[in-house]
Amino acid sequence: MPIVLDRDCATPLVQQLTEQLQAWIEQQRLRPGARLPSIRTQASNLAVSPACVIEAYDRLVASGWLQARHGTGFFVAERKPGLPLEEEQAWGEAVDGSWRQFREGHDELLKLGCGWLPSAWRANTEVAQAVRLVSRGKVEDLFDYCPPLGLASLRQQLHKRLARIDIAAGPERILTTQGASHALDLLVRTLLRPGDVVLVESPGYYNLFNLLRQHQVRMLPVPRTASGPDLDELQRLLVEHSPRVLFTNSLYHNPTGTSLTPKVAYRLLELAREHDLRIVEDDIYADFQDGPATRLATLDSEQRVIYMASFSKTLSSSLRVGYLVADAALIGRLAELKMVTGIGTSRFAEQVVGQMLANGSYRKSVQRLRVRLGQHMAKLLGQLEAFGWEVFCEPYGGMFVWVRSPGRDFAALERVALDNAVLLTPGSAFDHQGAPSDWLRINVAYGQDQRAQAFFRYAGRPSAR
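Structure tokens predicted for PLP-dependent aminotransferase family protein:
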């Protein structure tokens, strides 16, 4: 089964592997019941990370091409064309169930590069109390549709919160969404067309890359520096390509943890005005802010900046509530698309968040998070230095640090990580073309786990141990 991966191709390696395996099955060159190479063997044969193979196998299991058998491996599934809908669904659920059983063996691994906080850090008591209070309210408030712009009481609370960080936005300029991913999807669908050119930060957010690729939008990478996007490269790309939009994190950038400086922010806005550029400012980590911060939306006087944020990182990934701030005309277009594609957002979820904002429980919970994250960040940075790791930049907040161990590529780091029951997120995931990288995103909330400590120690520079 010869698989050929083109590392110079714009198509991500995971997608190439998935498509080639599926083609072999479709052409019946791999028949039902045939066993595929193990994850480690396939990764070694193709010189890719095990995470790449896991993702490809995962996609094929989810789409019914493969079946995962716990403790045995992956096998070509028997396709069931022509089944009644009920039987087809039942078969799909059985396949999915076998995959879940297989993945249970990976649940014990520490996900050191994940993008969420530990469950024990969540404001479980406060969320439960807000849920109870909302549940006791009017029945229609639980079951009715949400208004197109979102719940008025929540948008009023958001208006007050934005004012506290010097973003002037009345409730009519605020649109609620089902988290930040929904907000990005609405923006891409509304502002861009296939073939349009946009600027993305490198390294940057892989879900954004996937979304833009899905809509056939061309991405131009702007290197992320310790103080924000590289202004010289940004100006060159603006002159040569006239891109429509720049997507950026001002605060606690994902994955580097860096934050925008005032000097870079002012120049960004000048360039946006000179080249008629719109900026999408993703401030999803806004509530981790502790101390002064520079935001483009605060400095923007021409409404070129579209500001977006979310509560999924601080409250719960399943409590999908986010929001957008833009000029009234754009908000109207976004609201119309929101209703056409999804009817609306969850009235119940918005009431829960609004309740926590109104009674102060949300403010208190994020204050605790900031302190805890700050302590873990400071401690981990000291440990990384002692173990000989290189840090891209020392963040002053947030939950990510971007690191590498000089002299070790990702394959070497991953071997050490798996030996210590640690699952890494490869640096290639944060490149818009999936280019190899020896940098890693580390979530500081998990850095004191004994498995993480063992990994840092053994994967650091030998001279520093």
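The CA atoms of residues 122 and 316 lie 7 Å apart.
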